[in-house]
Amino acid sequence: MNKSKLHQLAELAGGPVEVVVVGRGEWTASGGSDQPEAGDSVTQGAGSLIAVSVEGEELQALRFAKALTPLEYELFKWVLQPSASRTAAIGFTDTERSARRLGEWVETSIGSGDLRAEIPDRFELGNRLFDGMIPFLLISEQADDRELPYGELEKVFRSFLSDDLLLIPIREREWLVLGSDRLLAEVESIEEDIIEMDETKEALAQLATGLHQMFTEEWGGECHVAVGVPIIPTESLVQTVASLRETVYLGRKFHMGMQVHLPWMVHLERLLNGIPEATRTRFMEEMVGRPDLFTEPETISTLDAFFAMDCNVSETAKRLYIHRNTLLYRLDKLKQETGLDVRSFNDAVLVRIMLLLYKVTKRK
């Protein structure tokens, strides 16, 4: 904050104003919230603090030499907002204002590493977050800088999912969409839990695909959608957003061209991403006898389809629209060139890892 603005604030306050950095411990010891947000205030000694920004365990705040009255606090909170935010806030509905406050709290909690934080009682939307809801994270990558109107987004999402929906802006061009878990009511009930979960995940994937298609048709540009299993938002909202955000990151890193991302489909990718780059590079150098092996589009498309079809030769041939013998010829050729037979479990695991790592390293 520049000296000119501090001088203006001091004149308004009728006393000295300075920028200070305080730890969360000092903030809470003064009576502040465990999850502080920009604009929160506390009384400290004979003066007052107003949080300007929160980064991890530290807060940047304004220290006023005197205790502020409630009216003065609201005035300074408004003055500290960026002018664009003040202008936009005038047109916010109560629902949008509450959703944006909740989104800011979620982002602050993720930034501080408090992924298990539960939603505080002070949020107006809290009473709508006790039921089972399906979380969708949508990230837009439009070429222009226009901001999509909250009301129009909410209206379109409601038309696709249901009226019982919450739209929560998290970051710029990133929205959390919470739909009722009743959307899964059409999934047939199966006695075996494993089969039921498989069908639930398939239904969730279909919903995410439909949401992606609807968004791109309505507003154009590229966007990514991740979906998770139903949650109780009051208990795990922060952790869910962090997980879905990681899912989109891994999907974009290991599977270029895909726009719909599923957490249960990137377990191996999550593991590989945690391995040091030097280790990954050494593994590729040791395993790939032919550096140009994965540069052949036919090899990559064949392996992608083979693994997508759970290593089923007949189903892979159908997906590729080729004769079964043609597929077997390609797999035998790969075995001759690498010494690895993807029809064998152990070799299939190695080739799958090599293919994923190659897709990452080739773009560097």
UniProtKB/TrEMBL annotation:
Keywords: Coiled coil. This is PucR family transcriptional regulator. The keyword Signal does not apply. It comes from Cohnella fermenti. Residues 301-356 form the PucR C-terminal helix-turn-helix domain. Residues 180-207 form a coiled coil. PANTHER family: CARBOHYDRATE DIACID REGULATOR.
